[in-house]
Design brief:
about 600 residues; seven-stranded mixed β-sheet; two-stranded antiparallel ribbon; 24 helices; 9 strands; about 55% helix; transmembrane helix; Chitin synthase; membrane; transmembrane
């Protein structure tokens, strides 16, 4: 009933984006915080290029960019610093070029956002003096605000990364949170240990007291001016600890058909999201949002003398607990960008990982009914490796917080309940055998379109509906397998899944149909065997035959949707290209460090070797 209820809400109050009040925010400081645990150089390249684009698209004296790395491999950590220096060179190069244009009053060659927020600050300075005395230091200063710091501990995973960044900004460089073995057992870190390995970037952040931290994942894009819009909303709502922008799924023409379907699906259901957030008066926290440092520290982390530690140390879905206490404000008119999963296989891996997080949440939501039995089983299975943990401070969930917090759990539990429904359906006599399933399909697939379909998108709605039938009809079975593996991973604590990036590389480097069959052949075999048994022994089992048919062709659906919508153009140029607005800077490995070329090929500052 959740989809039809949300549809009614959307029809009643409208699904348009709500524009929030804004105020002047030119004195607020912010750290664009990317968080990374790198397993390969490709992950580092992707994350740091994304951070570069976010930083340059929102450049101002009050904006810094900080990658908090939990990477363990020494060679990868060194590579992160190497790539940081390359991007610092690109920042210096681009700003020097724009500063030179500014000195010549060539404003057309300057990015409009940086002209307003950076160069206009020097419009009263003599241009000759500006070029010879100011420009080099300005470029150097902004380049140094593109930073990488390495965290000592992995406690609390990503959540711990940005928590420690906030504490470092407040002037705390030694650990005091999550250090108590009475609550965290062997998972506790040592009190007084360094939060980050010593570096110039750590010293640059220490005691800066950033007002806000924009928490981001390695693949989260930040559109131009997005940071300024978020800060304006934050300035008008200073009591809010989290400002949650919408997360817009986007892809390129050369991305897979599956990625485009996911993008269409989000766009179709966006009005329902806007309506529900407006109706509840608060938002979920998606793990990517603007956090007010002082409010967050006071309510989620605590102080050295009075620790709060509201997020469980072993939980994966940390955002649920943060949202419960800080009750995020939804800023749907501002968006962050995120790429969808490559295909069904990588989507399924991501869903399995999220399901594991939901199982952990259930252990905390229902401590006696689920938590105690699960921990007892874990202790029996893991033996001496079992680590008993407790939550120091519990969060109280109101109705809105509960509805949001349990949303993913409801979707997860729906899969085995659907399977149970199918089994009941084929085992009892019904006067109107297919009336119930037709009603359910109408309420879930068709009725929501009443609130989202219009003349402009009806073709996409039809395409998404067809894709949903092929993708989600097998979910009663695939979802049960996913839940079983998630529970198994929580109990055994030594289950290793194939990394999502490795699967993506496999699909890109081989035939997608062969790779799809490699990962999903078990479902096709199961569907074939069960289909034969159903035909032989279970009369009138049309519903389960439809499910088994879609399960059987799942590898084919995955292979087709793994194909690119457009063929990518090929290039033999191995130089690194940084795109920034309408300009591109091409920098080859031979030119770095030490030589920085402008867009017209001239050497700007040969021998600027500090990067």
């Amino acid at each position: 009933m959740e989809f039809p209820t949300q549809t009614m809400a959307t029809l009643l109050i409208g699904g348009d984006k709500r524009r929030l009040d804004k105020a002047k925010s030119d004195r607020l400081t912010i750290a664009l915080n990317y968080n990374l645990l790198a397993m390969s150089r490709d992950e580092i390249d992707e994350c740091m290029e994304t951070m570069y684009e976010a930083y340059m698209g929102n450049l101002s004296p009050n904006v810094s960019a900080v990658l908090v790395s939990a990477t363990g491999d020494k060679s990868l950590k060194d590579y992160e610093l190497e790539v940081r220096d390359r991007f610092r060179s690109a920042i210096f190069d681009e700003l020097f070029h724009e500063g030179s244009c500014f000195a010549k009053d060539d404003f057309q060659s300057i990015d409009p956002i940086r002209l307003e927020n950076v160069w206009s600050l020097y419009e009263d300075v003599d241009k000759t003096l500006f070029f010879h005395e100011y420009l080099h230091d300005i470029c150097d200063r902004y380049a140094r605000e593109y930073m990488v710091i390495h965290r000592v501990s992995r406690v609390l995973r990503k959540c711990g990364q940005y928590q420690d960044l906030m504490l470092l900004s407040e002037g705390e460089d030694e650990a005091f949170s999550y250090c108590d073995p009475l609550f965290y057992g062997k998972g506790a870190r040592n009190e007084g240990e360094q939060l980050f390995y010593d570096s110039d970037d750590v010293k640059n952040i220490f005691g800066r007291k950033f007002d806000y931290t924009l928490v981001l994942d390695g693949d989260t894009g930040v559109p131009k001016k997005c940071v300024f819009d978020l800060l304006d909303i934050a300035a008008a709502n200073p009591e809010k600890g989290i400002i949650q922008p919408s997360i817009k799924i986007h892809c390129q023409p050369t991305d897979t058909i599956f990625m485009h379907i996911e993008t269409i699906r989000q766009q179709i259901y966006e009005p329902m999201t806007n309506a529900v957030m407006e109706l509840l008066g608060q938002s979920a926290y998606f793990g990517k949002a603007l956090l007010k440092n002082r409010i967050y520290i006071d309510n989620v982390i605590g102080s050295r003398d009075h620790p709060i530690e509201r997020v469980p140390i072993d939980v994966l879905s940390h955002d649920t607990f943060e949202a419960a206490i800080l009750k995020p404000l939804y800023a749907g008119s501002v968006c962050l960008l995120e790429a969808p999963s490559l295909n069904f296989v990588t989507w399924n891996i991501r869903e399995r990982r999220w399901n594991r997080g939901e199982v952990l949440l259930a252990m905390y939501f229902w401590k006696n009914g689920i938590g105690k039995p699960m921990r007892w089983i874990k202790k029996k299975i893991q033996g001496e490796n079992f680590n008993s943990t407790k939550l120091r401070t519990e969060s109280t969930l109101n109705f809105a917080s509960s509805y949001i917090a349990y949303s993913a759990l409801r979707q997860m539990v729906m899969k085995p309940l659907l399977m149970l429904y199918v089994l009941i359906h084929i085992s009892v006599h019904l006067r109107y055998r297919y009336a119930s399933i037709i009603l359910i399909m109408f309420l879930v697939l068709v009725f929501p379109k009443f609130a989202t379909c219009n003349r402009r998108n009806y073709k996409y709605v039809l395409l998404e509906t067809i894709a949903s039938i092929f993708q989600f009809t097998p979910e009663a079975m695939v979802g049960c397998v996913r839940i079983f593996k998630a529970v198994q991973a929580n109990l055994a604590a030594n289950v290793k899944w194939i990394p999502q990036r490795a699967v993506e590389d496999e699909f890109r480097n081989s035939n997608p149909f062969i790779s799809s069959f490699h990962h999903l052949w078990g479902y096709s075999l199961f569907a074939l065997v069960c289909g034969v048994l159903v035909v032989l022994f279970i009369p009138r089992a049309m519903l389960i035959l439809i499910m088994l048919t879609t399960l059987f062709i799942l590898p084919l659906y995955t292979g087709i949707t793994s194909l690119p919508l457009q063929s990518p153009s090929r290039s033999n140029n191995d130089d690194i290209t940084f795109s920034n607005g309408d300009k591109e800077i091409a920098i080859s490995d031979a030119e770095m460090p030490g030589t920085y070329r402008s867009v017209d090929g001239g050497v700007i500052n040969e021998g600027f070797s500090k990067y």
